[in-house]
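Ligand: cobalt (II) ion. Inputs:
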Amino acid sequence: MAARDLQRVIPSVATSDGAGVKLRRSLGSSQFARLDPFLMLDEFYSDNPDDYIAGFPDHPHRGFETVTYMLEGNMLHRDHLGNTGNLAPGSVQWMTAGRGVIHSEMPQQKEGRMRGFQLWINLPAREKMKPAAYRDIPASQVPQVAIDGGEVRVIGGTLTVPGSDQAVSGPVNGPDERLSTDPVYWDLRLKPGASVSLPLPDGHQAMVYLYEGQARIGEKVLPTRSAGVLGDQGDLVLTADREGARLLVLAGKPIGEPVVQYGPFVMNSREEIEQAIADYRSGRLTEAA
Ligand code: CO
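Predicted complex:
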């Protein structure tokens, strides 16, 4: 199988969100920096409580999914449905905003390191107004798979283990429950100098986010803390340099619809955005249709 080439690099830029949480945004840093079906990828990483302590107080979403993946630190999720979730190291929170959700994510620590990611995955028009849903996935439910040269945590989609017939599915988008964007979400750790070749579904748009170390795709060096957009056919082929590398691997089936975003609302048209704002102001964002 041919290797996917590195077609574009989207560097992360420093920004802040919520009540002033400092983070680095690659995907979503502008309307041109998206990769259908992915809208936004934020990395938060700080040892300084001033950077995260204010958290993400109550705020709305409509029209897409948010996926939070924690590496270090603790936050607490609460939403209008009454869900609570402990964002602990290695855990994943997969939230489908659908028609509307109002939630908060607040730090449960006053010091120490906070590190993780939030990814926004778009929904097709026919699913944008579906009921909100929330899944709190503890670290113990995320398979950790040893591969030659490293290991993979399989959060979403199915990993075919290189050199074997073994297939390992994550807790989300496994064989029993295919999401319409069919997302792949892996956390890959490579040892120094290791190379891997991992199949991804043909036609899926794919990217990697290198969050630690150094890696190359073909002859091209992937800058640290950047999203590397790949071709849409073939295997992901990566080589870690001397320090090793840690990366998120994201792939999904493109939706191919217009994207109109206004802050936390992502719809297909301006009229739908205006409706979302009006619904939020009048307290109807989260009401059943
Ligand atoms: Co949110």
